[in-house]
C-alpha cells in the first residue's frame, strides 16, 4: 500500500513538473497557436505564384516591406489599431489574412500581440502571423523574397 | 596529383586572405557610411577620421537600443575630449534604422542627443544593414582614428572598459 502511494506521488510530481516546463517553453499566453504561424518560405511561394489565391497582408510594424502588404503602422499605437479595425470591419470573417511586424523577435515585439488579439476578438477564422523569428531583414530581405517597390 | 593539391592549397590561402581583407572583424577597415542627418546634410563616417569612434546602430522602435542611449550619453560626455593611443577625442556616429522621420527626430530632440545622428529612414531595408551584416539591434562597432575596427558589439561595462583601454596614460 505504502509503495503504491509513493509511486502515485512520484508520478504526480513528475507530471506536474513536466507540464510546467512545457507551458513555459510554449511562449506563455501568446494570442496565437503554433498552427497560426506562417513560414516565410510558404508566403513567398504564394506571392511568387500569380495563380495562387493571394492573402490580405497587413504590416503592423514600422514599414510595409513585403510585396503587396498594406501599411497599418505599429499596432502598439491606438490610432493604428483603429485603422486596422476599420479595414477589418469591411472584410468577410473567413478572409485569408496575414499580419507581420519584423522589427524584433516575438518576445520583444510590442506590435504582434495587439494585432493578433484583435483578429481573434473580431472572430476571424483564417488569419496567420508571419513567423519572422529574428526580424524582417534576416528572415525575408536576406532571402530575396518579394518586396514592395 | 601534386599539382592538384598545390592548387587547392593555393585557392584556400587566397580565399582566406580575401575574406580577411573584406570581413567585418577587428583589424579590418570599417566600411564607409554616408547618410543624412535630421537637417538633411550628409555626414560621412570617414569625416570623423582621427577620433576613436563608436558606430551605434539603433532605432526608436528597438527597446534595448533606446534603453542604452542614456549610457551612451554618459560615455560621450566623459570621453569626448579624451586623448587615446589610437585617436584624439571620442565621437559617436549613431545610425538609426527608423522608418519615420518624426519618431527619430522627436527622440533625439527630447533626449537632447548631441552626437552625430544619421539615417536613410529605410528601416531593415537600409543598405548599411546589409553592408554591416546586422542581424539584430542594438549593434555597434568601435573603430580607431584610422577607421580600423577595434571592437564589436560591446555593451554596458564591457563597452566602457574597451574605450578606457585606449586612454593615453
Characterise the protein shown here:
- The complex is a heterodimer of chains A (149) and B (169).
- Chain A is α/β, with parallel strands linked by helices and 149 residues long.
- Chain A contains 5 helices and 5 strands.
- Chain A has helices at residues 2-25, 40-47, 78-89, 112-121, 136-139; strands at residues 37-38, 56-59, 70-71, 97-100, 127-130.
- In chain A, strands 1-5-4-2-3 form a 5-stranded parallel sheet.
- In chain A, strand 4 (97-100), helix 4 (112-121) and strand 5 form a beta-alpha-beta unit.
- Chain A starts with a helix and ends in a 10-residue tail after the last helix.
- Chain B has 169 residues and is an alpha/beta fold.
- Chain B has a single domain (27-164), classed as Glutaredoxin.
- Chain B has helices spanning 2-22, 63-79, 101-110, 127-131, 156-164; strands at residues 34-36, 42-44, 52-58, 83-84, 87-88, 90-96, 116-118, 139-143, 149-152.
- Chain B is globular, with a radius of gyration of 18 Å.
- Chain B starts with a helix and ends in a 5-residue tail after the last helix.
- Classes of the chains: A alpha/beta (149), B alpha/beta (169).
Short description:
Chain A is α/β, with parallel strands linked by helices. Chain A has helices at residues 2-25, 40-47, 78-89, 112-121, 136-139; strands spanning 37-38, 56-59, 70-71, 97-100, 127-130.
Write the layout of secondary structure elements.
The complex is a heterodimer of chains A (149) and B (169).
Chain A: H1 2-25, E1 37-38, H2 40-47, E2 56-59, E3 70-71, H3 78-89, E4 97-100, H4 112-121, E5 127-130, H5 136-139
Helix pairs in contact in A: 3-4
Chain B: H1 2-22, E1 34-36, E2 42-44, E3 52-58, H2 63-79, E4 83-84, E5 87-88, E6 90-96, H3 101-110, E7 116-118, H4 127-131, E8 139-143, E9 149-152, H5 156-164
Parallel strand pairs in B: 3-6, 6-7
Antiparallel strand pairs in B: 1-2, 3-8, 4-5, 8-9
Amino acid at each position: 500500500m505504502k509503495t503504491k502511494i509513493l509511486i502515485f506521488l512520484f508520478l504526480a510530481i513528475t507530471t506536474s513538473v513536466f507540464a510546467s516546463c512545457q507551458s513555459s517553453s510554449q511562449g506563455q499566453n501568446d494570442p496565437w497557436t503554433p498552427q497560426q504561424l506562417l513560414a516565410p518560405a510558404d508566403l513567398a511561394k504564394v506571392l511568387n505564384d500569380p495563380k495562387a489565391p493571394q492573402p490580405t497582408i497587413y504590416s503592423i510594424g514600422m514599414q510595409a516591406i513585403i510585396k503587396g502588404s498594406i501599411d497599418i503602422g505599429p499596432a502598439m499605437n491606438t490610432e493604428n489599431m483603429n485603422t486596422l479595425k476599420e479595414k477589418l470591419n469591411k472584410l468577410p470573417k473567413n478572409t485569408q489574412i496575414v499580419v507581420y511586424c519584423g522589427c524584433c523577435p516575438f518576445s520583444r515585439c510590442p506590435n504582434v500581440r495587439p494585432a493578433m488579439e484583435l483578429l481573434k476578438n473580431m472572430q476571424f477564422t483564417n488569419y496567420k502571423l508571419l513567423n519572422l523569428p529574428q526580424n524582417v531583414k534576416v528572415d525575408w530581405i536576406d532571402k530575396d523574397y518579394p518586396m514592395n517597390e | 596529383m601534386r599539382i592538384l593539391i598545390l592548387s587547392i592549397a593555393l585557392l584556400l590561402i587566397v580565399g582566406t586572405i580575401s575574406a580577411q581583407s573584406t570581413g567585418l572583424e577587428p583589424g579590418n577597415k570599417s566600411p564607409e557610411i554616408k547618410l543624412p542627418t535630421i537637417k538633411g546634410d550628409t555626414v560621412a563616417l570617414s569625416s570623423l577620421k582621427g577620433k576613436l569612434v563608436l558606430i551605434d546602430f539603433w532605432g526608436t522602435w528597438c527597446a534595448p537600443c533606446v534603453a542604452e542611449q542614456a549610457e551612451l550619453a554618459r560615455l560621450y560626455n566623459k570621453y569626448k575630449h579624451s586623448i587615446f593611443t589610437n585617436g584624439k577625442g571620442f565621437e559617436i556616429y549613431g545610425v538609426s534604422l527608423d522608418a519615420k522621420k518624426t519618431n527619430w527626430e522627436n527622440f533625439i530632440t527630447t533626449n537632447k542627443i548631441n552626437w552625430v545622428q544619421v539615417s536613410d529612414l529605410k528601416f531593415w531595408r537600409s543598405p548599411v544593414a546589409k553592408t554591416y551584416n546586422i542581424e539584430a539591434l542594438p549593434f555597434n562597432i568601435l573603430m580607431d582614428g584610422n577607421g580600423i575596427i577595434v571592437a564589436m558589439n560591446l555593451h554596458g561595462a564591457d563597452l566602457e572598459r574597451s574605450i578606457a583601454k585606449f586612454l593615453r596614460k
